[in-house]
Design goal:
single chain; alpha+beta; five-stranded antiparallel β-sheet; four-stranded antiparallel β-sheet; 41% strand
Length: 165
């Protein structure tokens, strides 16, 4: 089963290593990991996507909560949340493919952020399924390079991570 977890931690040295160690020590692969400071620069938000058994993940959640630097753990499995990801895709742009690449980018509301005589670099943001769809359409034209941010999530509704409205 796929799990998306947010961990709010104190922004300090070694926290990422300790969190990743909890997963690897239990044989869980981290499929995606995104870390950045929050509005409070002393606190970082980790978004972790993994797959596996619910019982083992429950143990990981308990272990994460025991880490001194952990402020809050939220497992979004079974909850309503908004999920977004960003990708930059460098595509071959020949005379034959330029118009088609631009048309696909326009359909997906992507932006062309760099142009060279032989390539276009496209930036796209959206649900992971949207990114998968544009990648599949651009693949026949020749994707030279691809980088994805991994998903980030926020719970739906008016409450924030502090439980406030």
């Amino acid at each position: 089963m796929r799990h998306t977890i947010t961990v709010l931690v104190e922004n300090e040295f070694g926290v990422l290593t300790r969190v990743a160690g909890l997963f690897s020590g239990r044989g869980f692969n981290i499929e995606s990991l995104s870390v950045a400071p929050t509005l409070d620069p002393t606190i970082s938000r980790m978004t972790i996507v993994t797959s596996g058994d619910d019982q083992v993940l429950e143990q990981i959640n308990k272990q994460l909560n025991k880490l001194i630097s952990t402020i809050k753990v939220i497992d979004f499995t079974g909850q309503d949340y908004v999920e977004r990801e960003m990708a930059m895709i460098k595509v071959t742009a020949t005379e034959k493919t330029r118009a088609e690449v631009l048309r696909i980018a326009d359909i997906f509301r992507a932006k062309v952020v760099d142009v060279t005589p032989r390539t276009y670099t496209i930036e796209i943001t959206g649900a992971p399924s949207k990114l998968e769809a544009i990648i599949e359409l651009l693949r026949p034209m020749g994707i030279k390079e691809l980088v994805r941010s991994g998903p980030i999530v926020l719970g739906r509704g008016s409450k924030g991570w502090k439980g406030t409205e």
